[in-house]
Design brief:
Oligomer: single chain
Strand content: over 45%
Number of strands: 32
Low-confidence stretches: 242-253
Number of helices: 3
Structural class: mainly beta
Largest sheet: 7 strands, mixed
Helix content: under 10%
Radius of gyration: 38 Å
Mean pLDDT: 79
Length: 437
């Protein structure tokens, strides 16, 4: 891991990452002694079931004799937890290990004097270098280490909150006076890669679904996964809680204690669902203007032995909102429509802009000059509507008449702005059933 040109330097850096130990697991599975002698069906015999426990108990007492130095009972189950294979011992880190975004990198650094003479006036620097920046962790320029005796060492600890992905380099340098008074410069580089512990995938309609996936080799316990909505949104987390249903009469404060959520190692997944609502009526205008920032996720977790991690996602963008200036929709159509008798269709015209539009003309456009329409306007072929205020709407009724039996289509209902001389897309076709009187 270390790269440097040692030459004839008296000093050398040694780096050890500080992290909590892991559980020592014995590879062989432990077993229940009863499984060696009998099967499960022996307990179907009342006599055998009554005599077997004392027999096994006497055998276990003999095998657990403290004078037995062969440890012949080390694979036996003395407690249900023994089946997990944990020996009760902790294993110190055997390698530098993986480092993940959001963790705190903590390193124990020792500068050793391997020469046979004392080294004096040592200025030590430790820095983290990434692709974007260089961060100073330690600098003894103002108070140099006075001396390090022959065979001695000077130790220190540095910490850094990991906030970038990719290649990192721990740069350790020493400027010191050698035995002959020569000023020497020693650089050493320790490289490591920061990986992403989690992947966050989101889906958004009127809801936002966040899928948290564990990319590490250890279990992660989620202390907090909170969605911070953008100013024009409000968010409510949706939970399936059958044991403790929500109590609307409560004070509404946060839970005093919230058990962490386990996401298992090597690809474990947990989904979170948030309901998004516009925070105020003014937010509608922001949507029209194309603002589609929803917010960001704050995630904190701990590993098996409580080591913390923290991650904040970038701003999550929703699907770009494309609103029509004018929206025409059918609210109601009569369920019974008779041949050659007029019927009223209830429609709504909505203005999605921040300015007043209109007046408007509503008519049925012709798809083809040779195609005869089976549903036509009854009366004046053009209906005039007044101006519609900004973000306002108006309801109106259009009188139609069907000229043919069976399944027919209302097609070509079109709105035009007489002031701006603009014609909007026609309303999608609607099927109706025409009966004889």
């Amino acid at each position: 891991m270390s790269t440097t040109q040692q030459g004839t330097h008296s000093l050398a850096f040694r780096v050890m990452r500080l992290c909590k130990p892991s559980f020592h697991v014995e590879p062989p599975f432990r077993l229940d002694p009863a499984d060696l002698f009998v099967g499960e069906d022996i307990f179907d015999d009342p006599l055998a079931a009554a005599n077997l426990p004392p027999l096994l108990s006497s055998q276990l007492t003999k095998s657990m004799d403290s004078s037995d130095l062969t440890y012949g009972n080390r694979f036996l189950l003395h407690h249900p937890s023994d089946a997990m294979g944990f020996s009760g011992l902790l294993l110190l880190p055997q390698s530098f290990g993986a480092i993940y975004l959001g963790e705190t990198f903590c390193s124990y650094i020792s500068i050793n004097n391997n020469s046979n003479f004392e080294v004096r006036d040592i200025i030590i620097k430790a820095e983290i270098q990434t692709e974007r920046q260089r961060i100073l962790l330690l600098d003894t320029s103002k108070s140099p280490v006075e001396s390090v005796r022959a065979g001695g060492r000077y130790d220190f600890i540095v910490e850094h909150d990991v906030k970038e992905l990719g290649a990192h380099t721990l740069v350790c340098t020493a400027l010191y006076n050698d035995n002959d008074g020569e000023r020497k410069y020693l650089p050493q580089f320790f490289k490591f890669v920061v990986a992403n512990p989690l992947s966050v995938r989101t889906k958004e309609t009127t809801y936002l679904e966040a899928c948290i996936e564990n990319h590490t080799k250890s279990n992660l316990y989620m202390d907090q996964v909170e969605f911070e909505p953008a100013p024009h949104w409000s968010a409510t987390v949706l939970k399936a809680d059958e044991l403790h249903p929500a109590d609307n009469s409560s004070t509404g404060g946060r839970e005093i204690f919230k058990p962490p959520i386990l996401i298992r190692s090597g690809g474990g997944i947990h989904n979170y669902l948030y309901q998004l609502k516009l925070a105020s009526p003014d937010s509608a205008q922001m949507k029209v203007e194309g603002t589609n920032i929803l917010g960001k996720l704050q995630i904190t977790w701990r590993t098996n032995l409580g080591e913390p991690g923290r991650l904040q996602t970038q701003q999550i963008l929703g699907t770009p909102i494309s609103r029509k200036e004018i929206e025409l929709q059918i609210l109601e159509i009569p369920s019974l429509i008779n041949l050659d008798k007029s019927f009223l269709v209830h429609l709504n015209l909505t203005n999605h802009t921040d300015r007043e539009l209109g007046p408007f003309e509503v008519q049925l456009s012709q798809n083809s000059a040779h195609e005869e329409k089976k549903v036509m306007i009854n009366g004046l072929q053009t209906m005039v509507l007044p101006q519609v205020e900004a973000f306002g709407s108006t309801d109106f009724h259009l009188s139609l008449i069907a000229t043919k039996l069976g399944v027919q289509r209302i097609s070509g209902i079109t709105v035009s702005d007489t002031t701006e001389k603009k014609t909007y897309d026609p309303l999608p076709d609607v099927e109706i059933f025409v009966e004889s009187d």
